[in-house]
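Protein modeling request. Please complete all fields; requests missing the sequence field cannot be processed.
Requester role: graduate student
Desired output: 3D structure, token encoding
Chains: 1
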Amino acid sequence: MRLHTGKPPLKLVAMALVLGLAACENTPATPESTPDQPATQGGTSVSRDVERPDVFSVSEKALWDGRPSLGGVWVAYPANIDPERVIIRNVANGKSVIGALFRRERDNPGPKIQLSSDAAVALGVIAGTPTEISIVVLRREEVAVDVPEAAPVADPNMTIPPRRAVQAPPPAPPAEGSAAGLAAIVEQTLDQVPAAGAAAEATPPAAHEGLGALFRLRKPYIQISTFEDEAAANALVEELAAAGVQALTQGNDPENPTLWRVVSGPYEKRAERSAQLRIIRGLGYTDAFFFK
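Delivered output (292 residues):
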């Protein structure tokens, strides 16, 4: 089989051009080819937590007996319910945390809602003090999100004239042999140069004072675990320091503490806080959470 590298005959080129023009004339214009037709507005969906009070919701007194508990953040309620993922709110101070809801097997005297130690610390509940708590079931649902309309496509047939730069007229040259004219030019040139430190004085420091508060994290701390023994809490602080996480120990009572919790922070950047949380959970403390 030979390959012909020469130019095609002129008759074949002319026939191809005629067929191409005929096809263009018989092809109807599609909506995409119309430049002035607006783009249709689309949409997408995202998965997020949605409160479902119709599944389960209760607001009653809750109690933490002061003893440390396992399992992270959870609440127990004496009702015929299945384990659920819920949001728990302290009605008194407005603090909230996401945890698990379990069925309480024994209905002891006192408040019906039982709090875990981690849930009580996250909500600011004092041991032995009945506190009004709200519990609402969370479900993962797909929520539609509107997509903004696309910008209109410019008409390819429309031309925009180029902008013309406006130039200031040059200063009049001084008279020949005039020293006063030369001094005037030098004086005008120096007047246009800002003095040292003038740029810093033009922008007052107060204009930047509110930027730090605007981007400050709402929950800059990470709670890692709670211990009944201070020595165990200090050992965890040393373990975290070896892994590159700075942490400290806090007692529940300044004068006579009975519980010690290990926290890390505060953090100013969201990426740094998330990276530290991944290290902490990688060490086995999967119940660590953000708090303020």
